[in-house]
Amino acid sequence: HAKRLGGDRQEVFRPILRPLGKNLVDLETDLREAIKKETLGVYFQPIVRLEDQSIAGFEVLARWTHPKRGRVSPSEFIPVAEQSGLINELGTYMLEKGAHQLAQWQRSIPRERPLFASINISSRQLLKHDLINEVKAVLSRQSLAPGTLKLELTESLVMANPEYSSKVLERLRALGAGLSLDDFGTGHSSLAYLQRFPFDTIKIDQSFVKSNGNSARPVLLRSIVAMGRDLGMSVVAEGAESEADALELYQLGCEYAQGFFFGQAVTAEEATRLLRDAPKQAVSA
Ligand code: C2E
Ligand code: MG
Ligand code: MG
Ligand code: MG
């Protein structure tokens, strides 16, 4: 793409555009390599049931340590993957690794309420890829408790193409996948409208959750939580960073939270340790 970018433009732009384009191409090449060699990290961030602070599930997040550049943030490499089409390979990789790990946990650490894992799905995967058959294949390969493999899709992704999205989502749901509405509140659509889609879970965006001195915040939080519950959905708050955040969410009736207060994304080994060491309320209750 670097060539096309620089191609017909005035000479003066070349020194700026060429290195920029080259960096992105390199990043893409290296990311492709990391997926192929399976060095792309698959990490797990706990999603906690506030009532007893037990781990209810994990969000599966990609982590990449570049051989030369060191850690590269998902906010940098996910857009590169989306623009280059590599997101399909990345998505397949995360889906398979995440589902495999979940199946292993469900077998080795049985619990009263089966653990779930949620995988992020980006727009290109939903629109241009055979997501349905891929999810079907993963579900038939791994025996998982129904609804415990969840797919996270953002509000803006779904709203960009509501007719098509709702068809695909209905089929995913029929296969037994759980569906989480990610980053809710950032897309300016109402939960009442979004309820027409078969989501079972909403994840409140962290901008509503973190204490930030905004006096409208608890009011917004309270009404999102109440509406989610009234619509029969599970509600997860993202970005709980302090004990005060967690306590407030619990008092507002929010069922689940995720955030640095409870823990960052960790490796499968560390997550296994968390599951084994965790207080056993969830099992003995
Ligand atoms: P997301 O799906 O909304 O994921 C939540 C992000 O919030 C993660 O950032 C997580 O580390 C971060 N986070 C969690 N708790 C806290 C907290 O208490 N405070 C703050 N400030 N942040 C918190 P991360 O891992 O950097 O990922 C960023 C975004 O990149 C994700 O947002 C998701 O959209 C995308 N992403 C990550 N992994 C994948 C993947 O495997 N596939 C796709 N398609 N997208 C991914
Ligand atoms: Mg997410
Ligand atoms: Mg999110
Ligand atoms: Mg987010």
Describe what is shown at a glance:
The chain is built from 14 helices and 9 strands.
List the main descriptive attributes of the protein structure presented here.
14 helices, eight-stranded mixed β-barrel, binds magnesium ion, disordered C terminus, 285 residues, single chain, alpha/beta, 9 strands, binds ligand C2E
Mean of pLDDT: 89
Secondary structure category: alpha/beta
Using only CA atoms, what is the Rg? 20 Å
First-residue to last-residue Cα separation? 58 Å
Low-confidence stretches: 281-285
**Total number of helical segments?**
14
- Identify the overall geometry: globular
- What fraction of residues sit in β-strands? 15-25%
Strand order of the largest sheet: 1-2-4-5-6-7-8-9
Order of helices and strands: HHEEEHHEHHEHHEHEHHEHEHH
Heteromolecules bound: ligand C2E, magnesium ion
Instruction: Compute the number of strand runs.
Output: 9
Query: Sheet with the most strands?
Result: 8 strands, mixed, barrel
* Helical fraction: 40-55%
Protein described:
The protein is of the alpha/beta class. The protein has 14 helices and nine strands. The chain has helices at 2-7, 14-36, 74-84, 87-108, 123-128, 131-141, 155-160, 162-175, 191-194, 206-209, 217-230, 243-251, 268-277, 281-284; strands spanning 41-49, 54-66, 70-72, 116-120, 149-154, 178-184, 201-204, 234-238, 256-258. An eight-stranded mixed barrel has the order 1-2-4-5-6-7-8-9, surrounded by six helices. Helix 2 (14-36) packs across helix 3 (74-84), helix 4 (87-108) packs parallel to helix 6 and helix 6 (131-141) packs parallel to helix 8. The longest helix has 23 residues, at 14-36. It is globular, with a radius of gyration of 20 Å. The termini are far apart. Mean pLDDT is 89; it is low at 281-285. Bound molecules: ligand C2E and magnesium ion (3 copies). One magnesium ion is lined by residues 182-183, 203, 238. Ligand C2E is lined by residues 45, 61-62, 73-75, 78, 94, 120, 122, 152, 182-183, 206, 238-241, 258-260, 265.
